Amino acid sequence: MLKKKILEKRDKFKKKVIDKIVFTINQIKGEPLDAYKEEFDDEEIIDEEEEWKVNEWKQWFSNTEKEYDNWIQSIDDYKAQWIKEKDLEFPTFANSLYKSWDRWREQVKSESKDLKEAKWKGWGKEEWKLWLQKHWYEHNQEKWKDIIATYEKNYREWTVNNWNKWKGQKLMSWIMKKWKVREDRKWERWESNKWNKRLRFKEKKQWNVWRYRLEKERLQWKHWIDSKRITVLGENQWKEWDDWKEEKHKIFEEIVDSISKKWVEEEKFHEFK
């Protein structure tokens, strides 16, 4: 009976040593953390200090989600104000169309003055209407596209910069916690000694607990940020801006059309003959 207990104890010790050797080999090979995740199941709390660190992350993350809700509300407020500013700017753009008409018409005359037989010399109202609907409209449509592209580029740059700044500050507030800085420095120094990973098995287990916790935090943060990015940067989901563009584009078309129609009805096209 005594001999049996001695043999069982020896086999148990032998298995423990072999497990440590395999564990060390996996580390040297650079096995991913998931390869030995089962050793650190979520329900297994190494000690009270580790449990406290996990709870600190959960509390910080919960607070960050609440702060995000406040931040995104400030972004929505800015977007509403931004559209109001574009409302104030639109009349200036609309008035520029009238000045643009004079410049464009003179440019067309200048480019055609050397032609002996300009095709429009015999045109009446209908021919001029059709020609202007195409060329005058296309000329201004490019201007409309350019100004909208500029608006959206400026807005996106502002949003991206503020988003990057906000999420960077939030993450930094976690990384720079005093207890976390001390812990990270401790294990970074430990990692610099290659013999630690091979010989100090107890410390190595704690080191892997630290690495596993950091990886979990990193993945949770990444997934959360990815899920919020669409909301923050998704201009395609900005209904108020889409409505604004649709409404103002109709006004834009009416102005462009009225300018050319007035010119044709007054038979100003005779100046081209």
From TrEMBL:
Protein name: Tryptophan-rich antigen 3, putative
Organism of this sequence: Plasmodium malariae
InterPro entries: Plasmodium-antigen_C
A Pfam family the protein falls into: TryThrA_C
Domain Tryptophan/threonine-rich plasmodium antigen C-terminal: 56-271
Top-level division of the source organism's lineage: Eukaryota
